[in-house]
Design a protein that fits this description.
With 209 residues, the chain is mostly helical. Helix content is 84%, strand content 0%.
Length: 209
């Protein structure tokens, strides 16, 4: 299953290059299903929040391919980012809110700069993009605090995985609204797939400790 996931991650670049929507749809489904089965095969205790994340990833990736389902796809993507926080809630909730906010400031400023850079282009999704960005900032800062507190391989993999996603989001926004270059599209897709694999490794280590 691991080999299948790696192969599909590579093949999605071909589908994007030839602009074959049906092939892209099929490859993305196979990639996420293979990661789901890989997790179920290698974990001793299933984390149901993570299963929901994988399920919502399958839904959002599938819907994003078709422009008419953009808003539902965005909703599931926002929900996914929130669930990443839910998984580590026991680690971050003991922190006072002011500490969480303090660690969020650098990520929040970065998001606001990018948001206002592309604000005028996002005619129909300005509010959704803002909510998505805020949730992503909180996810990023939360996994960073989790890493600082635990400082082990599990927290490192989880932080690396979740940190790749906001940067992929930024590159996706640039490719979608400012400079539609194929290289950007392929790179941010790879960032998502690598990030998901890091998170998978963290989840397996967490449940099999």
């Amino acid at each position: 299953m691991k080999l299948l996931y790696i192969i599909t991650c590579i093949l999605v670049s071909y589908a994007l290059a030839v602009e074959n929507v049906n092939l892209e749809f099929a490859i993305k489904l196979v990639a996420l299903f293979s990661l789901s089965f890989l997790y179920l095969e290698t974990t001793l205790s299933v984390n149901h929040w993570y299963i929901m994340i994988l399920l919502f990833s399958i839904i959002s990736d599938s819907l994003f391919i078709f422009e008419e389902f953009y808003y539902p796809a965005l909703f599931f993507l926002i929900l996914n980012r929130f669930l990443y926080i839910v998984i580590i809630r026991k680690t971050i909730f003991p922190y006072p809110p002011k500490v969480i906010f303090l660690y969020s400031i650098p990520f929040l400023l970065t998001f606001l700069m990018v948001y206002f850079l592309i604000y005028e282009y996002m005619v129909d999704i300005q509010f959704f993009a803002f909510v998505f960005g805020i949730v992503s900032v909180f996810m990023f800062s939360s996994t960073y605090l989790n890493f600082l507190k635990k400082n082990n391989k599990r927290s490192k993999y989880y932080f690396l995985g979740t940190s790749l996603m906001p940067f992929a989001d930024i590159l996706m926004a640039i490719a979608f609204y400012i400079d539609s270059h194929l290289a950007y599209v392929i790179i941010y897709h790879m960032m998502y797939y690598i990030g998901r694999f890091y998170i998978y490794k963290a989840m397996v280590m967490h449940r099999n400790k």
